[in-house]
Amino acid sequence: MTAKIRVLIVDDQALMRAGIHALLNRKADIEVIGFANDGAEALRQVAALDPDVVLMDIRMPVMDGLAATRALVAAQARAAIIILTTFRDDANVFSAIQAGARGYLLKDTDHKELAEAIRTVAAGHALIHPEVTTQVLREFSRLAGQTASPSPTPGLPGLRNERLALLTERELAILRLLGQAHTNQEISDRLAISVGTVKNHISSILDKLDVRDRTQAGLFAQQAGLAE
User: Fold this and answer.
1) What's the whole-model pTM score?
2) Domain membership flag for residue 209
3) Which domain holds residue 168?
């Protein structure tokens, strides 16, 4: 039997902790192993319980979620951290990424999406809520313009073109839309294909481009001039 993904919930609101716990209890492959009501307690609980994934709120007393994330990353904690918050402003998104969070989700995320995000980061990948992906791409593009070597992959234009040549015409069309920060549903509507088909194509695109997530794929498209 496959081991369950062990999750620690960190939030200063008891009702929120209970609600997330109830949602995750529905998932056969996920187990909530503990709670913390601030960042300082989260550090103690991670040390004691060794979770696979930490769901971390941002605004908390004593120690906020960003400070706790930085402390866990500095201590080389094994747990993957997902910031789960109501805040979608640029400063919080980039602070979380810079702190070392593996994911950034909004608290109105559907329970299926939350569970899938937990599985994604537990497997070593990264995930950002579609509603804040535009902000991430915009900032990454701005920063890339300030550096002499902006490619998200080693190897510069030649390697980039070789990887693009691996994509089918449909995958190129989807990659262009990723570069414009469209959601899976928006891509589905534009191309008249199912959301499931979109997801399958995106998985293929990530593999062929050798990038870890849709944000990097979108940046790849921007830097290749496909998203204009």
Assistant:
1) 0.64
2) yes
3) 134-223
